[in-house]
Amino acid sequence: MAKGAKTRKQILKDPDQFITFSGKLIAFGRSNLKTILISAGVIVALLLAVATVRQVSDRNENRASELVEKAMAKYSAALQDTNPKTAYDRVKTDFAEIFGEYGSKNAVNIARIIYGDISYSAGDADTAIAMYTRSLDDFSQSPALKNIVLSGLGHAFVLKKDYPQSIRYFEMISADKENTMKSGALFNLAWIYEATGEKEKSTALYKQLLADFPDTMYGDLVREKFSG
Prior knowledge:
By secondary structure, the protein is mainly alpha-helical. The chain is built from eleven helices and no strands. The chain has helices at residues 23-33, 40-53, 59-79, 84-102, 106-121, 125-138, 143-159, 163-174, 182-195, 199-212, 217-227.
């Protein structure tokens, strides 16, 4: 995300759920993590969901899933020799065709979040917000995916420097019973409050993160911050 979204190393796990991969899913995740910082958990969880959608027998569903995978592979390949903005430009038409022809399919519901994350990485916050907002309706009954979408919205509004809106979405995650993306939400809330001069709120959130999620990447970051 922006400069304030710090991370120690690229990781292949969602910090809250420790999702693992195999084969080309790993390769795709590694490529994306070169450009996606704290929001990496979004793609990580989505890749697993795409793999699950592949099990569906419906012909159109399968076709939609295949097209999504091809678009993702094209984006991943583009990242090997160019920047996120150029890679984004190369797949715009691919995703537009997917949304236009298979917009109601499950794979395309997932693709909207993927495209939102790709848009965010390219600096196109408005498109990211549009994709994530639609996805809130698509995944309102899936607590984990809903939190992933809310996290995407939080990051996108930070990119626009609309901190009140960003706080709104991160607080929705932090207040939820579902733990997916919660440690990241606390970290980003703390960072936003620190960046906007509300030190007491920031410190309280950092301490809450350490108490609730001591063994996460974010817990390590906070300990380093306090010790430094």
